[in-house]
Each structure stands twice: as C-alpha cells, then as structure tokens.
Amino acid sequence: MITSAGTPPWPLDCPIEDLKCAGLPAPSKVRFKLFTLDHRLIRGQLGYLGDNDRLRLVEALAALLGD
Questions:
Q1: Beta-carbon-side half-sphere exposure of residue 26 (alpha carbons within 13 Å)
Q2: What are the structural domain ranges in the chain?
Q3: Are 12 and 29 in contact (CB under 8 A)?
C-alpha cells in the first residue's frame, strides 16, 4: 500500500523519491501490508514507480520473502 511519509515507521517501508513520476502530491512510502480492498474504491492509476524506487521495492520484497 502507499501511505504518507509522516506515518510511524513499519518494517521494510520504502520511501518514494520520484513523486512526480508516481503522480503523488506529497512525500509517501510503499508499505508491505496485506489487506483486502473493495475494487470499487480504486479510483484509478496516478502514475508509476520510477526505476530507482522500483528497484528498492523489489529488494525489500525479496528481503520480506526470504530470497
């Protein structure tokens, strides 16, 4: 999930550095937290993760899954 950068830390939080590419208006981070969400609440795509942000995310996911 994506959350505000100001929220208390969670294991393996990945800050999003390229906010423009991601289409985000404020400092944010990706948080590995499993939950369900009704598809009707998804409003659409804002952007995408830049290459460096995506690489950090893949590395954190590998650490989470024990790669």
A1: 6
A2: 2-65
A3: no
